[in-house]
Amino acid sequence: MKKMELYDTLTFVGEQFRIQGKLYSYETITNGNINSTYKVTYRRGDKSLKSYIFQKVNTVVFPAPVEIMQNIDKVTSHISKKYPREVTLHFHHTGTGENYYSTGEYFWRVMNYVDSITFNTCDDLAVIASVGEAFGRFQMQLADFDGSQLYETIPDFHNTHKRLEKLFETVKADPVGRVAEAAEEIEYIRSVKEKAEELSLRYSRGEIPARVTHNDTKSNNVLFDRDTKRPIVVIDLDTVMPGMSMYDFGDAVRFIANTAAEDEPDIRKVYFDTGKFRAFSKGFIGQVKGALTDEEIDNLVLASFSITVELAARFLDDYLNGDTYFKINYPDHNLVRTRCQIALAKNIELKEDELNWIVSDVAQTKE
C-alpha cells in the first residue's frame, strides 16, 4: 500500500469512527506480528492534536473478528464502569454502533492512544514484578465478570491434552517425512505427556475453576508510565476468553524468565531464571491470592511446565507438518524453537522444588 493510499485509507476509516478533526500524521507501530497497527494523529478544531490507534485485524489468524470485538466490548465496558477513574482501553464506535468497521475484505478498529512505553524483554526485577501485578490485577478486575458471556474465539487454545494428542497423530502420519529428524524431541514430549496434560484434563472435567484469562501474557502487552515505570493498562485483548488463571501465570513466566530467545539455537544458554520468577510471582500472586483457590496457587509451577511443553509440541507439530502455521526464517526454525522450549521445560522440572517454595513463600508474605 503506497503512502498516499494509506493516508486515504486511514482518513476513510477515521470517518467511519466519527473521529473529529483532520488527519495530521500517522506512523506504523512495529510491535506485534499479527495485526497492522498505526498511531494516527488528528488536528482538531481548536488546533490541538489528539492521537488514536488504528488497527487492521488479521482475519486469517483471527477468522471470527466480530466475536473478538464483542468479547472486547464486554470486557472493557465492565472494567471502565468498575474503575471509572483509571486508564482503560476504549474502542470507538461507528455511526451504526459497532466497535469495528468491516469492508468485507478489511476489518478495522480504533482505540484510544495511551502515551506509554513497553518492554519486549527486561532484566529489571521491579519492572518484572509490575508486569506480574498488571496481569494479576487484570484478572481481579474481571473476577466478578460472567465469563460464560464470552465467545471461545480460538477453541482449545490452551488445551494441552488436545495439543499433545494432535502432535502424536502427526507423528504417526509423518506427512512430510521429518519424524526421524525429531526422534529425541518426540520421545521427550511422550515421556512427560501425562504430567503436562494433567491440569488441562482436570479443567475439562470442571475440577479447576474457569476464569476470564488474557491468554497472551507477554511483558510487551503491558503499557507503562514513561517516568514512573508503573503499569498503566493491559492491552491486546484478542484472546481474552475463559481459561485457567494458572496458565496466564505460566505463559508469562515461560516468556519472561527464559534467559534466551524463544528460538535460541544454543540450548546451553537456555535456563529458567528463578530471580525473575520470584519477581513476577510477587506481583501476580499479590493481586490474586485472595481470589484463587489454594489448589490453583499450589499448581502455578506445574502450569508453567505444562504450557512450556504445550508450546514445544505446537512448534514440533508445525515442523512435522511442513511449517504451515508459524512464520519461519530458515528450514529448521520450528525444530530449533522446539528444542529451546524443551530445554526450558527440563530446567523448570529440575528447579521444581525451589520454584514451589518460592510460590509458597510469596503467597504467605503479608504486604
Query: Could you give a short account of the major beta sheet?
Result: 5 strands, antiparallel
How many individual helices? 12
Strand order of the largest sheet: 1-2-3-5-4
Number of strands: 9
> Which spans of ≥5 residues are poorly predicted at pLDDT below 50?
none
| Large-scale geometry | globular
Q: Structural class per helix/strand content?
A: alpha+beta
Number of domains: 2
Which topology of the largest domain does CATH recognise?
Aminoglycoside 3'-phosphotransferase, Chain: A, domain 2
The CATH superfamily of the largest domain bears the name: Aminoglycoside phosphotransferase (APH), C-terminal lobe
Sequence of secondary-structure elements: HEEEHEEHHHHEEEEHHHHHH
Output the radius of gyration.
21 Å
CATH class descriptor name of the largest domain: Alpha Beta
Q: Secondary-structure blueprint of this entry?
A:
Elements: H1 3-16, E1 22-29, E2 36-43, E3 49-56, H2 65-82, E4 101-102, E5 107-112, H3 125-141, H4 160-173, H5 183-196, H6 198-204, E6 211-213, E7 222-224, E8 231-234, E9 241-243, H7 245-256, H8 274-288, H9 294-298, H10 300-320, H11 333-350, H12 352-364
Antiparallel strand pairs: 1-2, 2-3, 3-5, 4-5, 6-9, 7-8
Helix pairs in contact: 3-7, 3-8, 4-5, 4-10, 5-10, 7-8, 7-10, 8-12, 10-11
